[in-house]
Amino acid sequence: MSRNTLVERRIHFLIASSLVVLLAFSVRLVDVQAVRAQGIAAKVTNELTKKKVLPAPRGAITDANGSELARSVISYRVIVDQSIISSPAKLAALAAPILGMNAAALTQELTGTRRYVVIAQSVSPVVWNRLTAVVKNYNLSLKNNKDASSQQLAGFFSERLYTREYPSGYLAASIIGFINQAGVGAAGLEYAQNTLLTGTNGEYLYESGGGAIIPGTQQVTVEEKKGNSIKLTIDKDIQYVAMQAISEVVKSSNAKSGTVIVMNPKTGEVLAQATYPTYDPANTKNTDPSKFKNPAVEDVYEPGSTGKVITYAAALEEKKITPLSVFTIPYALKVSTHVFHDHEKHATQRLTATGALAVSSNTGAIQIGQMMSNDTLFSYLTKFGIGSKTGTQLPGESSGLLSKVKDWSGTTAPTVAFGQGYSLTAMQATSVFATLANDGVRVSPTVIAGTSDASGNFTPSAKRAAERVVSAETARQMRLMMESVVSSSGTAASAAIPGYRVAGKTGTAMRIDDSCSCYRGYTASFIGFAPADKPEYVVSVTIQAPQGIHWGGYLGGPVFKKVMSFVLQEKRIPPTPTLKTIYPLNEKDLKATQKP
After folding, report:
1. pTM of whole model > 0.90?
2. Partners of 529 in the beta sheet?
């Protein structure tokens, strides 16, 4: 074989091999670009495009008049793409004052090649707009300056978030509560109604590079849906006055805490529930966790003399007494193994049942309680709601403490008769007086007026459960008797309101100290309603562990007067005629009225 022939054969082989390779590439190219193009493109897209949750705003919580007490507002997470920032130091110098950051520290955050760096959380729309405007104006000035050597600044992006705001601050914190860092209710109604308030999250797509979001590539695919809103029965203005009044008396008496509740006895609606000390729901980081509780429904205490109204109402209903029944009232009275005393030493008196209530005699209440069996007294305590939750829909509500009759000792009944030996919450105590104010019908208290969906459609809450406890006549007699408490001869003259008939009862109870499981200190209280002839509102005042003077009438009476006076004016309740006749308080006055 000649040399030329061999060369030709090798050339033909190379050409053929090249044609085969080119044909293979062509087939592959057709396969990739035509046959499998869509599948490959989809695969690439799937690898680069990711899904992420678009947070939904929580529903608002408003007062009875629509004033927002809790709301979710738009905020932004500020992020940067370091790879496209040409001058980190200049960008930091512009942005740091707006974001409230150190310029040197921000420069470090802006320097590098990372494509997703969080610079700030929960930035308000105002701040975000200022930031973008400043950067935009700087870049515009560079374009207009042909001799400028500086490069344009870029790199800031944002992600939409929602921040929870509490416009009224501490005002209704014990009711509203707050949310934690995860956006979940952690106390109050925010916790109890978390499912209702929580919205439905949306979804957006974004392109990722190196596992991080590429800023500016976000695209919303599913819009978020706002949570339902809650309208409360709370009146913000009344809540403010109640908060001011209770905080002042707690501070002035160096008390541990205090609570004021304002209730409509006909509907059970709570117009105010103020507690002091309290906290700022927007700033709970360094707050003592004990303040997150709601004392109005969680803390239990022995009511003392405010509990006497149950004993008196039961005896009236059972026809054991009348408001004019006369009793011999000693300072001390021995029952079983214990000697009971009135709060102040006095000579033996002859008082009517009304008079014994007016001066808050323990020995008088014991004698009235002894006219009924233990089972009967227990039954009325339960009918008035002692030992059962009120159903306010507030979290952590206690049932109180009431022992079964079989567990009573020889001194339990007399103790219970004057309001010790069992425990209740401030809400339960308020409900007892609301029952008497509402002609003997107990209506379950509530703080929720209704709810609205994301479209604003309002659904009122179901009508509250109502139960008759005593007759309308018994309730009427009790109201007349309780007016004597606020008279000049009673224990709460400081609660009287000029132009209005007021009825109520003081309480000064020995207080259980959990640290020693013993009685130490006092609970001072006053609960009343007005106008006494046709009650519209009930106001209860409870002060725990005051120092120095601790009488319920002295501390609670003025608070009641301040709050109730405002409520009557705010609700435009007209003045009532002065009571022309009052039940005689002692035997002498009773006989005088009976003379022909």
Report:
1. no
2. 503, 538
